[in-house]
Write a structure and sequence with these properties.
Layout (H helix, E strand, L loop, with lengths): L16 E5 L2 E7 L8 E6 L2 E8 L2 E8 L5 E8 L2 E7 L4
Antiparallel strand pairs: 1-2, 2-7, 3-4, 4-5, 6-7
């Protein structure tokens, strides 16, 4: 009989950094060892949700953003995910 471990002592919990630069918001997340296919993000109304699937577990982080914000660009470099959002014109 196979016994599955439910241990979560090494839970994945990345820190999310947000930098407001006037017309854009830069969100950076260190994701060393995470493949791009394991990362998903959704922007809905005033919430940016980042989901990372790792070892059959999904970790989600959410950030509030101004209404009308839209996705502009995403890049991953040296284990750092950067999402650039564009705020609505004033």
């Amino acid at each position: 009989m196979r016994h599955e471990r439910q241990e979560r002592s090494s839970a994945f919990n990345p820190s999310v950094h947000r930098r407001d630069e006037g017309r854009t918001i830069h969100v950076t997340v260190p994701l060393d060892g995470i493949a791009e296919e394991q990362i998903r993000f959704d922007l809905e109304k005033t919430t940016l949700t980042l989901s990372v699937t790792r070892d059959s577990e999904v970790t989600k982080k959410t950030l509030r953003v101004p209404g009308g914000t839209r996705f502009f660009k995403k890049k991953i470099h040296d284990g750092i995910l950067e999402i650039i959002l564009e705020k609505p014109a004033p």
